[in-house]
Design brief:
With about 220 residues, this protein is α/β, with parallel strands linked by helices. The chain has six helices and eleven strands. About 25% of the residues lie in helices and about 30% in strands. It has a nine-stranded mixed sheet, with helices on both faces. A two-stranded antiparallel ribbon has the order 2-3. β10 and β11 form a beta hairpin. The radius of gyration is 16 Å and the shape is globular.
């Protein structure tokens, strides 16, 4: 997943976020301002993922990182912290993330030895209730025991935090487990020499049902132009 050659998004994440959330009241619970739950049409935004244990999968040429950074940017615009857990053999390319508008100084990045250690660290962060988004970049050999998934899903739900697990697998392969609330498979198609079409296909959605999708046109890094 390190070779995904798109990050810059053409659409303004800030304007989309303001339009979608301008009428939502907030209530205080602990350390974070949590939005009151309002059922809305499925779309690729924080509201869809908040409080859920989600898996974003792709093959080696997928668009998983690009679309996940779309959510990271939205959370940072909202002024909430984001934590990114990754194993030693999987990491995003920081210059591309910065070009996408990500504030790298505000992004908490933790590298661990393997996925179980990532899950333990993520659980501690979720329990704090301080993060709007926690990402586990698990790579190719993604595996989380059922008991770890149960604790992570419970904490994400309790604190209304979006928990995203990034995995590298084919569309036909099963999700991490039965506790995954939302499974999305992403893919990339070349639009022209400078742009790519990033597509997200929802395979599993316990809240709204599977079948919906999302598409964004993204610009490749300057080195590919």
């Amino acid at each position: 997943m390190n070779n995904v050659p798109r990050i810059d998004l053409l659409d303004s994440a800030a304007s989309k976020f303001e339009a979608a959330n301008s009428s939502i009241d907030l209530e205080t619970r602990g350390r974070r301002q949590l939005p009151i739950h309002i059922e809305a049409p499925a779309e690729w935004c924080l509201h869809t993922f908040a409080g859920r244990f989600s898996e974003i999968s792709s093959n080696s040429a997928g668009a998983g990182l690009t679309l996940v950074f779309r959510l990271v940017l939205e959370v940072q615009i909202q002024g909430e912290p984001v934590a990114w857990m990754t194993t030693r053999d999987s990491i995003f390319f920081p210059p591309d993330a910065a070009d996408a508008g990500i504030d790298l100084e505000a992004l908490v990045v933790i590298r661990v030895s393997e996925s179980i250690a990532a899950a333990r660290t993520a659980e501690h962060l979720l329990r704090s209730g301080a993060f709007g988004l926690v990402v586990l970049d698990l790579g190719v050999k993604a595996h989380l025991p059922q008991h770890a998934q149960s604790r992570l899903a419970g904490q994400a739900r309790r604190h209304h935090t979006a928990l995203l697990c990034i995995t590298e697998k084919e569309y036909s392969q099963p999700s991490l487990g039965s506790l995954v609330s939302l499974r999305v498979h992403t893919e990339r198609m070349t639009e022209n020499s400078n742009h790519f079409r990033c597509m997200a296909h929802v395979i599993k959605d316990k809240s709204r049902g599977p079948g919906w999708s999302h598409v964004e046109v993204c610009r490749g890094p300057d080195g590919l132009h």
